[in-house]
Design brief:
The strands form two sheets. Strands 2, 4, 5, 6, 9, 10 and 11 form a seven-stranded mixed sheet that branches. This protein has no helices and eleven strands. The protein is 0% helix and 56% strand. It is mainly beta.
Length: 116
């Protein structure tokens, strides 16, 4: 499975961005997908996750009500709509997937910078 993120960039506080993660390869084996982020000097933390059918989602408390994760299985693409962005949301955002054997895959990351 290969994961490629896009959609990062520079935005002012209060603005919005939408990240995309395109999956290719053995996508039929993917179980759960999610977004993680890592700020400089900090650990990589889960932002949001979604199940295969999109029926179940999970969010970090810090983004609840502002971010929305979704998945288009037909396009093998996952999205993260980020609204009301804050400077503390600045980080490299990584796409993550787990197959049905529990093996993890990571994208290369996309930078999101929120200016105050």
């Amino acid at each position: 499975v290969q994961l490629v993120e896009s959609g990062g960039g520079l935005v002012q506080a209060g603005g919005s961005l939408r990240l995309s993660c395109a999956a290719s390869g053995s996508t039929f084996s993917i179980n759960t997908m999610g977004w993680y982020r890592q700020a400089p000097g900090k650990q990589r933390d889960l932002v949001a996750a979604i199940t295969t059918d999109g029926g179940s989602t999970n969010y970090a408390d810090s983004v609840k009500g502002r971010f929305t994760i979704s998945r288009d299985k037909a396009k093998n693409t996952m999205y993260l709509q980020m609204n009301s962005l804050k400077p503390e949301d600045t980080a490299v955002y990584y796409c993550h997937a787990v197959n049905d054997l529990g093996f993890p895959y990571w994208g290369q990351g996309t930078q999101v910078t929120v200016s105050s």
